[in-house]
Amino acid sequence: MSESQSAGLVAGLEALLDAPPTRKGPPCTVGTVLASVDGETGAALRRILGTPEVSSTAIAEVLNQHGREVTSYTVARHRRRGAAHGCRCAR
């Protein structure tokens, strides 16, 4: 590989670091709820999501009672965000 080809390859690879990550599929329902509520509600939901003693099922039930269609599986996946099998929302 010539020096110019090598430099071009390095530049192309480093450009990947600046590229926004590609998203596949629809956005996370929990993330959508968090983005659509006021600050106080969002803070309360984030605090509850971070409390392992509160089940994902209980969180989903409360959200559904208040007009948000969210499954317990989605809540559990959102809680695992950042992991290989978690949601794609930012940690």
Overview of the molecule:
With 91 residues, the chain is mainly alpha-helical. The chain has helices spanning 3-18, 29-36, 39-49, 56-65, 72-79. The model has no long low-confidence stretch (mean pLDDT 89).
Produce a short descriptive summary.
With 91 residues, the protein is mainly α. 58% of the residues lie in helices and 0% in strands.
Query: Structural class of the secondary structure composition?
Result: mainly alpha
Major sheet, described briefly? none
The whole-angstrom Rg is: 19 Å
Shape label: elongated
- Give me the number of helical elements: 5
Give the DSSP E fraction (strand runs of 2 or more residues): under 5%
Low-pLDDT parts are none
Number of strands: 0
Q: Mean of the pLDDT scores?
A: 89
Order of helices and strands: HHHHH
Distance between the termini: 40 Å
The percentage helix is: 55-70%
Describe the protein's topology.
Blueprint: H1 3-18, H2 29-36, H3 39-49, H4 56-65, H5 72-79
Helix pairs in contact: 4-5
What distinguishing features does this structure have?
91 residues; mainly alpha
